[in-house]
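Researcher: I'd like a structural prediction for the single chain below. Treat it as a standalone chain; there are no partners to consider.
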Amino acid sequence: MSEIIEALIDTISDDERVEVYSALIDIFENYDCDTLNECLEIDEVFDEVYREKYPEEDEVIEEDLEDWDDQSGGSF
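Model: Treating it as a single chain, here is the predicted structure.
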């Protein structure tokens, strides 16, 4: 998915990417792709669409980072 995002950034407008990302996220999820969050921070438009569909994801990521920090004894 990250390669698709990179290909679309310079190819189509932000508004078009919103529609495309919304459809692609649904399609990927229907095929049990559960790692789309790994594509965050490539394209702001994708991030916006993904976070709109999964607003709770930010909370989970923050909790994971806190857990990692506690277990590793360090921070980023």
